[in-house]
Amino acid sequence: MEFGTYFSLAIYFVAMLGIGLYAFKTNEENASGYLLGGRKLSAPVTALSAGASDMSGWMLMGVPGAMYVSGASSLWIAIGLLFGAWLNYLIVAPRLRIFTEIANDSITLPDYFENRFQDKTRILRVLASVVIILFFTLYTSSGVVAGGKLFESSFGLSYELGLYITAGVVVTYTFFGGFMAVSLTDFIQGILMFVALVLVPSVVVFELGGINETLSSLEQINPQLLSLFTNASSGEALSFIAIISLLSWGLGYFGQPHIIVRFMAINSVAQIPAARRIGMTWMLVSLIGAAMTGLFGLAYASNNGVSINDPETIFIVLSQLLFNPFIGGFLLAAILAAIMSTISSQLLVTSSSLTRDVYASFLNKNASDAQQVLVGRVCVIIVAVVAIILALGENKTVLSLVSNAWAGFGAAFGPLVIISLLWKKMTKLSAIAGILAGTITVLVWIFVPINEQGETLSSIIYEIIPGFLVSAAVILLVSKIVPEKHSDNDVLFERFLQVLNNK
């Protein structure tokens, strides 16, 4: 690795730490300031931080790798994600921003659930917190693993050292700057990812002599690479169920705490349409760029005799072959940005849940803002240490569970979030039942074998579909069968509607 590459990466790390220091200096030293940025995010920061925390290394490694292997048939996931993200901005964002403020200034998702249904038993808060802490600790570990492997494969450093560098930088700026630091660094990281995903496929096309020559090369390699309905690697046509499974990834957006918390933190509801336009433009261009990186990268590798051992490294390979070391370092920083943006968001959401939903709710009900901020910072370190320990073990069971966490969150929280914002008659009991039903359905779909070969129901259809549908059905049925007799929730919902209609 040349000096220019290291120099570019050093600049990136210094910038991330500098943003953390800036957020530390400007943040309000209270729970809302540390855990939700004081609800002061601008539309651009909301949009790009939501996108960057969402996409992770999947954007720069997973999508190009899938396109490299299977061709255009992999685009169905991207289509589903785009539609799901758009609906999330349209339906959830404005309502959640208003309702969380009305519902006793809720600053975490379990906070909102408890206040929305005025749950004096606190069962709903505990249940939601357990789901968040479990899945996000594992999710964070997955991101740390990705960082360790990137340093190992790209820089020749040990896997363990890569873990410590990745986690160390993220923990430092999250520890000091809290939510504002995470959001501002995600904003910068989102810009890095955007530029990189426009630059790399454009240069590849230029090197191959233009778009027509690139497409001709792909036709010669395998005509099925350009088909939406045929898996190029197997040559088999995609079934209707397979396409629905790929599109259903979009359902996950409604239940992802690290994404929808941005809607809670935006400056005002009036900023949401601008955030939606910026966010969807960023997502559309970035997904197209990621897809074209994999597809055009295949043409480049084939034409130039470049050996690609792992298709998911195609972005890394192209960044080192086609650019000088300074630009190559910037492109590697884009991958780190994708990884770190998600780690930091998940780290803070988990820390927020431990602080607000465990410590302040059960261990010290009279905790001051200063105490909550201190506990939040300590929890950032604790969660990071646990994530590193899991990453050092490289537990394949853990990592396979993490790969299904998107479906788990989508099924456990997605229907609950949507229905709670749209239907006045939803009840506390139905919310508890919905979380349990969605989570259990997803776990059964993932782990219970259906034949002697050990195949599970996930091999038939993506688990988020039955999980989401079962959770939604249970919420509606329980609300109808066991309605609440008091009208406190109705009064709160009517107040929410008045504010919403006046915006």
Q: Rough shape?
A: globular
Low-confidence stretches: 395-399
Overall pLDDT level:
85
- List the domain count as a whole number: 1
- Helix fraction, binned, reads over 70%
Strand content: under 5%
CATH topology annotation: Sodium/glucose cotransporter
Which structural class should the secondary elements be placed in? mainly alpha
CATH architecture: Up-down Bundle
Q: Provide the CATH top-level class.
A: Mainly Alpha
Largest sheet: none
- The span between the termini is 54 Å
Report Rg.
23 Å
Q: Any idea what the CATH superfamily is called?
A: Sodium/glucose cotransporter
Number of helices: 19
Function: Catalyzes the sodium-dependent uptake of extracellular L-proline.
Membrane topology: Multi-pass membrane protein
Family: Belongs to the sodium:solute symporter (SSF) (TC 2.A.21) family.
Subcellular location: Cell inner membrane; Cell membrane
Written overview of the protein:
The chain is mainly alpha-helical and 503 residues long. The protein has one domain (40-394): Sodium/glucose cotransporter (Up-down Bundle). Helix content is 78%, strand content 0%. It contains 19 helices and no strands. The chain has helices spanning 3-26, 31-36, 43-70, 75-102, 109-116, 123-155, 159-208, 211-221, 240-247, 257-265, 272-304, 314-322, 325-363, 369-393, 396-403, 405-422, 428-447, 464-481, 488-502. The model is unreliable at 395-399 (pLDDT under 50).
